Amino acid sequence: MLSKTKFLLPVLAGALLLQSCDKKDEFYTTADGLTYKIYEKNDKGEYENKGKVSADDTTGAKVGQVVTMQMSYKNAEDSVLFDSRTQNQPIMIPVMEPTFKGSLEHALMMMSAGDSGVFKVNADSLFAKTFNQPLPPFIKPGSQLTFFIKAEKIQSRDEAIADQQKMFEEQMKEAAVRAEKQVKVDDQKIQEYIKNQNMAGLQKTESGVYYKVNTPGKGPQAAAGDQVSVHYKLSSLDGKEMESSYNNPMTGGEPFTFTLGQGQVIRGWDEAIQKLNEGSKATLIVPSPLAYGEQDRGPEMPANSILRFDIELVKVNKQ
């Protein structure tokens, strides 16, 4: 998300390649000590070194604007520490006043939309004055980090926020399409599981959660907005138990309490538990888009995991 945080970037692996021609392909250094090469497209659509940028040049990004970019950076050993391309989307960084001479903020202010650049920034100053963090052990004191930046857009903050919202909406639509396809894939796997386990009497919710009431409850039926308390055992379809409220040391073995239908739990729970009465014991088989979807939650629960819950609806507090 776009925020006032300057450069809090995760450490990821990857590589960012910049195309350029060999004409005058050399580094320059500003009076403040920032070493750089900046490339722009020529009439042939090829990148070429712009050469030395005048200290009076005002064509670059300005304080208060937002640069949408692809960025990677390497340490002195040429190891890639971050690459935005691994996130499958560009990053947005507000342009701030430079925090030190030869800073990364200064680098952004030298670039125009469409430019690509390579910048060498003092690592000690960057972490101390921009990141506000101690120098990590994999970066040598006194060394430089090399940044590779492709400035895709330079906008006002309002324009960038509008763009970000549009991008978020597009991502949500794409995710919904993938989820719709994944539900069908998961449904086939669930049906095979049910057959192999000789399970009978399961029903299916509108969205695709399979459930079976093993012991009917005699209390009130749960509804959206009710506060409910649920005991559960979570397992994968291969039978491995991953979590249980009965022996959870964090809760002292107490049932999990939440408000139903408010998005406080996975969608499969919000939907299926409304089919149950207080006191019911049931089995839920939740397709991945109604559980944690494309999230990778570790080796026991990779992306697109189908989950089985054996639950007990302990209490329904009607609201």
From TrEMBL:
Pfam entry (one): FKBP_C
Molecular function terms, GO-annotated: peptidyl-prolyl cis-trans isomerase activity
Enzyme Commission number(s): 5.2.1.8
Domain PPIase FKBP-type: 225-317
Lineage: superkingdom: Bacteria
The keyword Isomerase is annotated on this UniProt entry: yes
Cited Gene3D superfamilies: 3.10.50.40
Similarity section: Belongs to the FKBP-type PPIase family.
Protein name per Swiss-Prot or TrEMBL: Peptidyl-prolyl cis-trans isomerase
Organism: Pontibacter aydingkolensis
